[in-house]
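Sample A.
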Amino acid sequence: MGTKQLAAAQVSRRGFLGVAAAGIAATLIPKSAESLVPSPESLLSPQPIGLQLYTVRDLMQKDVKYTLQQVAGVGYREVEFAGLFDKNAKTVAKWLGENKLTSPSSHIPLDRLKNSLQGVVDECQTLGNGLIVCPWIDESMRKSADDWHKIAADLNKIGEQLSRMGLRFAYHNHDFEFKKLASGEMGYDILLKECDPKFVKMEMDLYWITKGGQDPLAYFAKWPGRFPLVHVKDMAGSGEITNVGKGTIDWNRIFAKRREAGIEHFYVERDNPTSPIDDIKVSYDYLSRLGL
């Protein structure tokens, strides 16, 4: 991502190798799973600017249909759900279509993924999702390295089940994954080492990894192609979340490596917006100026 000139410059040796690796991986994956492999073109083409709807959750609570209209009115073309607020998935899918929105992914709590996976699949397929994302691990479940090993095993199991149903699976980070455990390891590293890349991808939250003291580019280089989704939110000088373009994160630097990362979709998010629609417009306008 970046300006047209930057995009052209990125057809580099590393970008070529990343695309070539995707092609090789596709030949190694069973025919039934071919739909789960992004095409090289999807990694080279500009992507629509997306929004994680958690940002506008208070508005969604009051009126899902009107909120989707407002989001589309700003210019967003993709949305990621974080709950349907008791609305029927078929109805919500109809509203998406009316507003020329698509929904590549949804956040689904881990307990639903473990206990009612078929219902999750039915809902997400109705919305048009190709990816399901686990957004959070409860603190009680992640106190030690052994806990993270168990989490990785659980995610592998869920991801394998979803792959058989034609869906991909990803895990979304906060900053707690980057705290050193008693073993000296970090939970995020354990997940990347132990989660099977065929079944578990990562949705990297670019604010939270930065807040956790880590460099996204180091992870892109070490684990290329593992990050089909990213959350885009900026960090103010105080360390708090702010609108994209109003903080200290170097977005050109990050998006220049989108091919290496494997980024297919990116979502603006602000956890605690001051004025949700105004805030998402500020971020949209900034990203639009980058020529994404």
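Sample B, a different protein:
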Amino acid sequence: MRTTDTFELNKEELITSSSQQMDAKFAESRYSVREKLALTCRILYDNGHDSGLAGQITARTGQPGEFLTQRLGYGFDEITAGSLLRVDEHLNVLEGDGIPNPANRFHSWVYRARPDVNCIIHTHAVYTAALGMLEQPLIVSHMDNCVLYDDVAFVAKWPGVPVGNEEGELISSALGNKRALMLSHHGLLVATGTVEEACILSLAFERAARMQLLAAAAGDIQPIPPELAKEAHDWILRPKRNSVAFDYYARRALKNPLNADCLRGD
């Protein structure tokens, strides 16, 4: 059987071929939404997103006006699939023990504004928080971070603790149609169509903030060509690639004995 001479293909053809192979080779994630959320909490904790009880993660249940979230009083390192709460958009608990973080109110605003969003992550990751203290937007100037290129909105001034409708309206409006938001003096917000994508973008966000601070300390950050950055953004952001990357981080998290209870359903 004759095979294609790949040395004769152009870049666009090679990208298309690689994408088709990826879609055909890799299966969809075997984890439930609850398990993905619990795994994401542990993954984020293991990758510098720990800030005590600050930060939230939510995902739609599939029922209108409902989402899953962690209970107030539990850190990301303690969340299990079974400990998540099912709440309505008014933060009334429909299933589970405890109460949600009152700051989840702005999640409800984002879900109302963005029907395409199925998962929201908000953390006070340390490098993002440090960058926010400078009131600087996130700069994407490296290939690894292009998954966020032209996809991060910016709130330059801190609006205060986000437990009111005013903050929810401001944050959902500032996010617009982007997948991420940089909040000065606060943290990051990622809002995407899947849990896997939200997890991967949150990791990329914090890494980009860390790289920005390191690079800025050494000199002026140089921009990258917009057309190449957009190409990299679309290549990295493919759903199957996000799923494969998520499964890698999940395997890594589950190797840690401290995360042995993560998938527990009770």
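Observation for Sample B: Strands lie at 56-60, 66-69, 85-88, 93-95, 119-123, 152-155, 180-183, 187-192.
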